[in-house]
């Protein structure tokens, strides 16, 4: 039997009058590259925040790698890699220092060697000694990508990881994600770029206005001769505007 | 272009109400009004201990300080706002996207700050005093004059910090030279006249004896500082990104005796590279304290010989506790949300950084003790200062967690803070005035400091932290 690395049960998050996520239940198997899809404001980032213990659900529960996200949020964040919604490397640290900082907190051995590998791999060695505040948006995104994977987590929850990358870098990163999953790890990726999801994801869930509209696999869609974007639009457009 | 001015006022309100809550922030001027109104009835009593001139002196010094602090915050740049509100941009930084010059925006910024803080701080105080004046036998013209001179005092602080920071951005040696000249001039004035230079402070003189000439002198000083600031103002230019040597690993090693060395090292690097280590120490600590020293010195006739030092150590302790704001302003918890760091850990690491920074007030009080000829009381003064600083920090952590700026404008939080800190201040003042060496007992404040900090850890760990 395949073990689920993420189990969410009726997760709900309410902000005042707004229900950002409404009773969402889903599970993700170990070894999946699972896409959480939805338009802007659909609740994808809120889901990732709840699953990584950054915010507490209003109702419902979740376990990640078998750890309860509410009772041990730090334990969850110790075991997973996270790319948050907005890139947030500290302004006054250099790229190298930020990775050293992450390495010190996560207790990653040989952090300097690992950092050098990543700078070469994502092609920003020339920026390694530049303050994060002076980096371009794309380079900051590279840095956030590195901090999520530098400790080789068994599960990474990544929010729109490709959005600021040029096509060449998108290609490099997509290949990396595929290989990472092949090595037995799991990736939970939130995105609204459906082409990317269709290209790399095995399973997916569609979220709209906080509600879970569908869960399935890309293979099933392909068997039905359907494309993800057409399927997504048919589902989302059925939901009346608020 | 009134649109920019109006938008800036709205923006200032929204920044404050987002940080402190609309209701809490809206209640703030009412609190000031109430304190002024009720406090006015205590004036006849207070006059028995202190002449009216000394009371007005303390009030004007406070508003001068307020101007300094508001100006210093305005100059911290977009980084603080970005860390607090995500990739936000204030109108002050809109010259990049709008056809407006940096200088024009800066001028609007100063006028906006003056009007905004007049309504927030000066007007409620003057109204409270005005309403109470018929009951305490004070002519109604006095509160109106006070509103004018406190505004001038606030503007003096604001423009002085703009001027000094404009000079600082152009040339650090020039700033050092100006500060040295000011110090020498103050010393010379004291030697020649035998009077504390603070008595020549124009807004204070104007309040004590109104004259149109005095008003013109006050306004001219402010306008001069403002015009020179605009003239010297050099907008940040985007150039080639500089490369920096790694400081994190060596600094983490040096801090290894403290808890959470990488987090504390990051905070110190933030402060150092943002210019905060020098800028904040200078503009939010040393300059205000030097000003306060001048004003407190005027009280020497009413206090025992060591009294001014004791009072100064207490004031320095309270101001030193605001260093917690320096180290929490560069990030929110959101910046750590992708790492295995709890709120409790983060607050503890900030306390570590705070403890390292306490070397500044300790050295400062030691220097003041020696320079004022009160070296005998150096140890009690330093103990008094640091104990009060850590006690106030404990309260701040309990009340505000990682957002100590809430302290300023959240009425409930501020009243609690004032009551707890005020009680300690009163007791310590009384004890230390009676027996200066009894001030060593102030270390006992560390017990409630730890108690409040622990309450804070539990309180803020249980609460959801704002990210972006």
List unreliable stretches of 5+ residues of chain A. none
Largest interface: A-B, 39 and 37 residues
What would you call the shape of chain A?
A: globular
Q: Which stretches of chain B are low in confidence, meaning pLDDT under 50 for 5 or more residues running?
A: 77-88
Amino-to-carboxy terminus distance of chain A: 41 Å
Overview features:
heterodimer, A: 242 residues, alpha/beta, Rossmann fold, six-stranded mixed β-sheet, four-stranded antiparallel β-sheet, 9 helices, 10 strands, 37% helix, B: 468 residues, mainly alpha, 2 domains
Description:
Chain A has 242 residues and is α/β, with parallel strands linked by helices. Chain A has a domain at 4-85 and 154-236: P-loop containing nucleotide triphosphate hydrolases (Rossmann fold, 3-Layer(aba) Sandwich), CATH 3.40.50.300. Helix content of chain A is 37%, strand content 27%. Chain A has 9 helices and 10 strands. Chain A has helices at 44-51, 73-79, 95-106, 111-121, 137-149, 167-182, 194-200, 218-223, 228-236, and strands at residues 4-15, 18-29, 33-37, 59-64, 67-68, 80-83, 155-159, 186-191, 203-208, 211-217. In chain A, the strands form 2 sheets. Chain A has a 6-stranded mixed β-sheet with strand order 6-7-8-3-9-10, with helices on both faces. The radius of gyration of chain A is 18 Å and the shape is globular. The model of chain A has no long low-confidence stretch (mean pLDDT 92). Chain B is an all-alpha fold and 468 residues long. Chain B folds into 2 domains: 1-236, no CATH class; 247-468, no CATH class. Chain B is 75% helix and 0% strand. Chain B has 21 helices and no strands. Chain B has helices spanning 2-20, 22-40, 43-49, 52-74, 78-85, 102-136, 141-170, 172-193, 202-208, 212-232, 248-254, 261-273, 276-297, 307-321, 323-328, 343-357, 359-371, 378-400, 406-409, 411-434, 446-461. The chains are: A alpha/beta (242), B mainly alpha (468). The A-B interface holds A 49, 52, 54-56, 73-75, 77-78, 82-86, 88, 90-94, 96-97, 100-102, 104-106, 127, 129-131, 133-135, 144, 147-148 and B 79, 82-83, 86-87, 241-249, 252, 261-263, 266, 269-270, 272-274, 330-331, 334-335, 337-342, 464, 467-468.
